[in-house]
Design goal:
The protein is an alpha+beta fold and 294 residues long. The protein contains six helices and 14 strands. It starts with 12 loop residues before the first strand and ends with a strand.
Length: 294
Amino acid sequence: MAFNPKAYSPSLDLLEFDRRPGLVSAHLSGGMLMKRILFTILFLVGLLALAGMASLTLNGAPAAAVPGQSPDGAADAVQAVAPAAEQQIDAAAAEASSAPAADPFVQRLNMIALPLHSQAMFAALGHTFNAKGLAAYIGPAVIRVQVWLPGSQTYRASVKPFTLNNFALQSGGVYMVTLDNSDQTLSVFTIVGDVPPPSQTTPQGTPGRVEYTLAGGSPCKLNQLTAPLDRPDLAKAKDLALAIGNVARIQQWNANTQVYQSSLSPFTLNNFDVRIGYPYMVCVNAPGNGQVWP
């Protein structure tokens, strides 16, 4: 499928971006014109109409994992995988990864992606394109920004005031952002940027093309990536896993329940929906080590 940036207009999709005490929703909005689109996150905080939804944030605290240490297979990470008949508890408990630690009563973890080239937008607003700049752009409720390092299989964390480990951001990067409940006025988060060169019609190594060098191993190794903007055909977890190849498990973060939802090979159970530009965790087997994708 050829990618025509002038005609590209993704439909409105929902991505959970949750913060205590209210449910936060993110939308990938269409309206791209001349290779520019918006990535909008709406923080629907404190609305009475969402009280029932907000109460879901009290369910399922994240498994404890110290930033900078490798996540372990905690039982909490299995709870949201599927109903009891589909859980495959033994396999998931052995391999499912947990998120960095957050206090469920005052902090909520969110996995976000930067699918566009947004450096110019950050610069225009006086923000550097790094962890501190991302925190400043979102607002003072951000207390920690983390990035997954596939080589060491650990998170690298920058904690408020973001003077240490102030790592650079990347287009296509996936980040774990921890929000507290201090800013009840935070309402909208929008990223504007240029669409990267399409993955299907430009060769690997093309300047500006979003691509990932995957780590693989036995047991499988974890990698975070975004679904390419020009691949609406990758509609399911199985589709994305098979397109990458050598994937043992694919996961998406559920900000509402604060656990990963997992689908294990052969991806017949919990074959969740995939959305372009959204972040996912994939566990890659040894033959996929060093593979560049897409």
